[in-house]
Amino acid sequence: MCQTQVISNHIGRIGRRSFDRRMRIVSPLYVEKRGEIVRLLNEVDALSERLHNEFSTITEEDYRMFGPELKIVIATLKSLLRESMTHRELKLYNERMREQIVDLEELDHDILEFRVKAPKNKELQAAMAKVGEVDFSFLFK
Q1: According to the 3-state scheme, what is the secondary structure of 19-50?
Q2: Using CA of residue 125, residue 5, residue 42, residue 29, what is the dihedral sign?
Q3: In whole angstroms, how far apart are CA 78 and each of 23, 47, 138, 140?
Q4: Domain limits at 49?
Q5: How far apart are CA 57 and CA 73, in angstroms?
Q6: Mean of the pLDDT values across residues 99-119?
Q7: What local confidence, expressed as pLDDT, does residue 61 receive?
Q8: How big is the chain by its Cα radius of gyration, in Å?
Q9: Is residue 45 part of a domain?
Q10: pLDDT confidence of residue 93
């Protein structure tokens, strides 16, 4: 089992802060906006890195715990991206937000498909076992 509680706490912290920050980010004070958005994006980067590092140990139970929260973080980032497109001074963060959204969506998909669904798929397990039996050493000679 991965560090589910740490991941869940991290996602929860981002979720609670991001809704509040989203409202402040679209306020007229650019300095406050820039600081808030940079902190949020750094936290999302840290979350992505943790999920990448823990990917191989995530179980279905883990995903059941933090999966819904992860979807909320993704939805919040998408909403923030839409809002930031209307503010010229925030457009420089749009590409980074797009990349983070794509990364989190891919992680969410991969966790669901490869860590939750794949272990239940008997055909896939049988195919993987057969592939594991093949000797590929001739390819490296």
Answers
A1: HHHHHHHCCCCHHHHHHHHHHHHHHHHHHHHH
A2: positive
A3: 14, 16, 48, 45
A4: 4-133
A5: 21
A6: 95
A7: 93
A8: 19
A9: yes
A10: 86
The one-letter amino acid code at 40 reads L
Structure tokens, 56: 């191989």
User: Among the residues of the chain, which ranges form H helices?
Assistant: 4-25, 30-54, 60-84, 94-110, 122-133
Q: How much is the average pLDDT of 102-115?
A: 96
Buried b / exposed e across 68-77, counting CB within 10 Å, b at 16+? ebbebbbebb
pLDDT confidence band for 25 (50 / 70 / 90): low
Structure tokens at 87: 């503010």
Tell whether 121 is covered by a domain.
yes
Domains: count for the chain: 1
Distance of alpha carbon 74 from its chain centroid, rounded?
A: 7
